[in-house]
Amino acid sequence: MTAAKRDDDAPASRFRLAAELRGLRELAGLSGRDLARLIDISQSQVSRIESGKSLPTLPQVREWAKAVGASPEARAWLLVTAETVRTESSPWPAALAGRPHLQDEIKEQEARTRESRCFQPSLVPGLLQTAEYARRVFEICREIVYNGEGLAAAVAGRLDRQLALYDPERRFQFLITESALRWRPGSVPAQLAQLDRIASLSTLENVSIGLIPLRVPALTYFSHGFVIFAEDEEREQDAFVTLETIHANTVVHDPEDIRLYEDRWSLLRQMAVFDEEARTFLAEIADEIRRSAP
């Protein structure tokens, strides 16, 4: 069996699946082109699946197993493993093992595609945070404890990720609830600076920032934030969704699950205000904060 070349941030199960699929193809004496023709996919997709860059669908795994004459036991293992790796969950202690923070890994994840859509119901998204806001978020985080140097490195890493916002070839969309805008992890001046930062970034042509006021009738509900990364054929990257829970970081690859997040995004977007209306809304919130400050 030939091992697939693996990326450092991908789970071992994905590469076991990739290596097994490639090994079965080679044992059957089939070239990548032969297999692609038999299961009706492109040769490049076969290569991406065997390298672990792309995850096969369950129907593709079934057809692959049939084409290479896999045993019933091997076929069952392939299907179970393929189902398992559609959603990857990495508990924070494991994700942080040997690393002071995860900002570099998140940056690499964000670089896989040219377009992303981020929804946040509870705090300002990391790509839009000021240094002070980011520092306070890291300080009060209970899942990950940062020491002095680790805290500074995490803040610097988060700010470094934000350079991508100024790349005109990248597109970023954000939806942020009013509750997230009003959440105050630090001082009033820091919160006002954060609102001003959002208003400024909303003027970038490749950045869309929608704000969801509490006064708008709800079209859907939400329980957590998420980021949808679009498919990028040039970078040979499938679409995927990331979400952070209290105990783990999760990456969703299953197309049906991704569609659920895309549908939810569509409804949330209908509730949002944009452009000048959004900047006016930010100014109203800022004025209210100033008036209520002690």
From TrEMBL:
Q: What is this protein called?
A: HTH cro/C1-type domain-containing protein
- Fetch the InterPro entries from UniProt: Cro/C1-type_HTH, DUF5753, Lambda_DNA-bd_dom_sf
Q: Which SMART domains does this one have?
A: HTH_XRE
Report domain HTH cro/C1-type positions: 21-75
Query: Which Pfam family, giving just one, matches this sequence?
Result: HTH_31
Alphabetical list of SUPFAM superfamilies matching this protein: lambda repressor-like DNA-binding domains
Q: Source organism's superkingdom?
A: Bacteria
Annotated GO MF terms: DNA binding
